[in-house]
Amino acid sequence: MNPSAPLHDVIIVGAGAAGIATAASLLKRAPNLDVLLIDPATEHFYQPGWTLVGAGVFSQASTRRETAALVPAGATLLRGTVTGFDPEHNRILLAEQAPRGYRQLVVCPGLKLDWAAIDGLEATLGRHGVTSNYRYDLAPYTWELTRALQHGRALFTQPGMPIKCAGAPQKALYLACDHWRRHDRLGAVQAEFLNANPSLFGVAAYVPALQRYIERYQVDLRLRHRLVAVDGPAQEATFEVSDAQGNVRHEARPFDMLHVVPPQCAPDALRGSALADAAGWLDVDPHSLRHRRFANIHGLGDAINAGNAKTVAAARKQAPVVAHNVAVALGRAQGQARYDGYGACPLTVERGRIVLAEFAYGGQLAPSFPQWLLKGTEPTRLAWWLKAHGLPWLYWNGMLRGHEWLARPVLADSP
Ligand SMILES: Cc1cc2nc3c(=O)[nH]c(=O)nc-3n(C[C@H](O)[C@H](O)[C@H](O)COP(=O)(O)OP(=O)(O)OC[C@H]3O[C@@H](n4cnc5c(N)ncnc54)[C@H](O)[C@@H]3O)c2cc1C
């Protein structure tokens, strides 16, 4: 290692959901470690709340906190942007700051929302009826448009996979439709769901319940439709439409409201680095979450290539696994912890009811509650209560503080 780079026991890249949770879990296991969290952002967001901001249920401010206030005691927060990785010398590179050295590295910078990949989109976001729940500042505009629209066409788009919270594009659709249904505007308002993928949802067990809501709201569902351009002033969106044989054509559709979910990719600093796979994501073993080539590097959250659903729910289960395995590598714990691919997606099919999709690797259903209490493949009021009250509380007071409720890691050598 470069002797001039300060050396830390553990560096964590990114102080989002995954980074703060990992720091907290790690310091619960080994309180005197030197843990450095690095993030350029001064604010931290509970992104799952943005769906409910877009539906007028949550206030925008309730989803935001100061990052510094969330850093667990014993960890240090460095405001900075990681620009590159030097795994051969156990250092990370920073913009306008000296490199930093580590004994163990945890990489969790989330993913990049690629707004620029859609021609004309950035120029019109927040105007001309174009919105997205994927941005803190725009989610209130979704609610404003939903309330204002009396008649016309409302388009909701979904890009190709992978994206974070694959259910969020249709959550926005259902909650807006439910509002129009309650105000007798369905019919006058015609909703279309234009999804780049070949099916409504990736895990087949949840599709029948979702399909019923598509019919109930008279949604015009169009699969294999990928948004490629937006003309805001003309209120026209262009889609690349492909068929099962691979034929492609372009189609322009007028709109009065357009809810866009942008294509998503690995962050710039990761893509093309020595740590990335061919697609740019952090290349980890899907169970140990350890890097496939560099044994003292670990990863979690949206940035990894493990194939789980990119969700806070996944990060909540991954953080204790990574914390445990880092503690083992530093001689502070024993046995290897193992992640099973758990992820969850509370599908807000109407105001007051949710289909709580919970699944592990391979789309295997992984319910947290017994069926008599919560039938995961059908909408329930209890799941809505969890989304609106239980899960935000669990996030701020449990996950980010190192309490591993419903997330204790399983050790690979336990029976
Ligand atoms: C609209 C919406 C709805 C969602 N709904 C749900 C839901 O219902 N349930 C659910 O479980 N999940 C949901 N999610 C997904 C969830 O929010 C993400 O999966 C989760 O936040 C991922 O955590 P993360 O720590 O990997 O990334 P993030 O929380 O995004 O944090 C990444 C951090 O890394 C920092 N960073 C980036 N680049 C660098 C760099 N170069 N150097 C240093 N730091 C860097 C960023 O500033 C950020 O603070 C939703 C997301 C959205 C947008």
3D architecture notes:
This protein is 22% helix and 27% strand. By secondary structure, it is an alpha/beta fold. It folds into 2 domains: 7-111 and 266-411, 3-Layer(bba) Sandwich (FAD/NAD(P)-binding domain); 113-263, FAD/NAD(P)-binding domain. The strands form 7 sheets. Strands 1, 2, 5, 6, 7, 8 and 19 form a 7-stranded mixed beta sheet that branches. The protein has a 5-stranded parallel beta sheet with strand order 10-17-11-12-13, covered by helices on one side. The chain has a 3-stranded antiparallel beta sheet with strand order 14-15-16, with no helix packed on it. Strand 14 and strand 15 form a beta hairpin. The longest helix has 18 residues, at 312-329. The chain is globular and about 65 Å long. The two termini are 40 Å apart. It binds flavin-adenine dinucleotide (FAD).
